[in-house]
Amino acid sequence: MSEKAAITLTINGKDYAIAVEPRRTLADAIREDCGQTGTHIGCEHGVCGACTVIVDDAPVRSCLMFAVQAAGKKIRTVEGLASGDTLHPMQQAFMDNHGLQCGFCTPGFLMLAVGVLEREPDISDEDLIDVLSSNLCRCTGYQNIIKSVRAAAAEMRK
Amino acid sequence: MKPAPFVRHVPRSLDEALKILAEVAGDDGRILAGGQSLVPIMAFRLAKPAHLVDINEVEGLDKIADDGQTLTIGARVRHAAFHKPVTANPLGALLAYVARHIAHYPIRMRGTFCGSLAHADPSSEWCLTAATLDAVMIAKSVKGIREIKAASFFDGIMSTHLKEDELLAEVRLPLLPADAKFGFYEFSRRAGDFAMSASLVTYRLDGGKMTDARVGLGGAEASPRRIAEAEAQLNGKAPGDAAFRAAGEAASAAIEPLEDHQTDAAYRRDLVKVVVRRALEHSLK
After folding, report:
1. Average pLDDT of chain B, as a whole number
2. Does B39 contact chain A (CB < 8 Å)?
3. Same domain, A71 and A94
4. Where are the alpha helices (DSSP H) in B163-264?
5. Any residues with CB less than 8 A from the CB of B194 and at least 6 apart, and which?
6. Which CATH number characterizes residue A140's domain?
7. ipTM strictly over 0.85?
8. Residues 43-82 of B with CB under 8 A from A
9. Pairing assessment for the beta strands A5-11 and A74-76 based on DSSP bridges
10. How many domains does chain A fold into?
């Protein structure tokens, strides 16, 4: 055990004062220390993308960042997408287009797609497919995910 | 799948970072930049550094400078910085094209150019770029500054000639001639996965003939390098199928192929023929 550091993580606008070892990944801190279990952990080595969150406007793998590195930054997770009972256009599009089956990978895909479209609203369809190759889904075969994200992209550009 | 304990150091200036690195280098201290290669290795416990010198809070390491001769890339310039051309020189378009092939979008948000070079994965797109373009590495430590040429920087699989107390502070890439053409191609089994072979080529045209040809090859040998035998097949020839195939054949014959659980030497030689030819074909598009 190494010494714990007292840090504050700001997740979806709310502050969480926690104490973590430097080796604690951001993914584990979000789930275990802050109780925000919408962010899922799959591979824990940056391959699957299930743990994707948005840190200071950049979609990143939260298993490849240490929690102490995210102190003072703005973290957004799937819990912060909807406003009240109104789903984010990306969530609505996944629902409308059957973009998920078991749903395990979905929070990662949502944060990836929202993060990229906020940075690059006019990204081409071809580049969008390349972006979506970042994350793994073992149910859908990806076509409905691509369909969902294209639909949400059109909605977000309005 | 959890990293082993370590002590994290958070310097605010380069001098402070070098001082800490000098103190902890002998005690298995490492630099943490983007962490997109180091953290997975730590998760597997293949690396258990006792100290990490986290350079993410150091001022001024994220600069890219074009002085008309050279593009200087700071220690913490992330891959995504190259998504759009960083210079109007053809080098900007080259780097933007190559950058798209590095891992995946979220990885490119964090991973760094210099970190890739210091990590020295044989498949790394940036290591290939540095070798092809004869980059100069600027290594800094409390003892001073060293300039290391790309051709003598890499030392086999995931190994470089950086000393343990040295930080790769910046990398200098020479700008390309204004009329330079480039081509790049890599082969991997899955989108975003490590390339099993990759090639980057540049040349100029003089009266319809290729000149100043550079043929870089990565992922095929323990370290990326220029393949002089392939370059010789291009200089003085017109760009086209005959010269491109000859260059591929020459590269294939010149290498000491890596072998792994997926591929034997014969497979990699075949692959090299194809990636060199396709990189050259890309230069015409």
Report:
1. 97
2. yes
3. no
4. 228-232, 241-254
5. B121, B123, B188, B219
6. 1.10.150.120
7. yes
8. 43-44, 52, 54, 56, 80
9. parallel
10. 2
Tell me the helices (H) and strands (E) count for chain A, helix number first. 5, 5
Question: What pLDDT score does B262 carry?
Answer: 79
Chain segment B94-105, per-residue pLDDT in tens: 999 999 999 999
Which residue among B3, B54, B106 sits closest to A61, beta carbon to beta carbon?
B106
A39 touches chain B (CB under 8 A): no
Q: What pTM was computed for the model? A: 0.97
pLDDT, tens digit, for every residue of B131-163?
999 999 999 999 999 999 999 999 999 999 999
The whole-angstrom separation of Cα B282 and Cα B24 is 46
Q: Kindly list the structural domains of chain B, giving each domain's residue range(s) and its CATH number in brackets, ordered by start.
A: 7-57 (3.30.43.10), 64-174 (3.30.465.10), 181-282 (3.30.390.50)
Where does a domain end: A47, A77, A107? A77
Which pLDDT value is given to residue B261? Answer: 85
Contact B93, B69 (CB under 8 A): no
Q: Which residues contact B5 (CB under 8 A, 6 or more apart)?
A: A1, A2, A21, A22, A23
Nearest to B5 among A21, A52, A116 (CB): A21
The residue segments making up the domain with residue A116 are: 89-157
Tell whether A155 lies on the interface with B, counting CB pairs under 8 A.
Answer: no
Based on the fold, state whether residues A51 and A99 are members of the same structural domain: no
To the nearest whole percent, how much of chain B has pLDDT over 70? Answer: 100
Residues of A in contact with B84 (CB under 8 A): none
A24, A41, A114, A134: best mutation site toward chain B, by most B Cβ within 10 Å?
Answer: A134
Please, which residues bridge with residue B7 across strands? B51
Chain A nearest C-alpha distance from B109 (Å): 7
Asked if A61's CB is within 8 angstroms of B105's CB, the reply is: no
Q: Report which residue type is found at B246.
A: A
Q: What radius of gyration, in Å, describes the C-alpha atoms of chain B?
A: 19
Q: Is the pLDDT at A1 greater than 60, yes or no?
A: no
